[in-house]
Write a structure and sequence with these properties.
Shape: rod-shaped
Number of domains: 1
Radius of gyration: 24 Å
Strand content: under 5%
Length: 109
């Protein structure tokens, strides 16, 4: 079952194109081949996208930077490697909290 089997717009468009080609007496094999190749490519792209998001969000660098990791995974076109490298440069919420606590503790009363 392809990724597009549940996409009503794709199914309707492809179905209409195949029906028209057959009604016009054309050989629709090229269109069927295109649909199969396109569907396979789309499915592979979705898998790659999910793996990229997972790599970013579940990386050790994302700990304490969950909001930033989610943003980098879902809202940018960075590779997982680029996003993780950027996360390394960001302060984590735990380090910010530790610094704030250190500042409060070190202040004289």
């Amino acid at each position: 079952m392809s990724t597009y089997d549940n996409d009503p717009h794709f199914v309707a468009s492809l179905g209409a194109a195949l029906t028209k080609e057959r009604a016009d007496g054309h050989n629709s094999a090229y269109l069927e081949d295109f649909a199969a190749a396109f569907t396979k490519s789309y499915a592979e792209g979705r898998i790659a996208y999910r793996l990229r998001c997972k790599a970013i969000i579940e990386s050790p660098e994302a700990k304490g930077r969950e909001v930033q990791a989610k943003h980098l995974a879902l809202e940018t076109d960075m590779t997982a490697e680029q996003a993780i490298a950027l996360l390394r440069t960001m302060a984590s919420s735990s380090s910010i909290g530790a610094r704030a606590a250190e500042t409060i503790i070190s202040r004289p009363l």
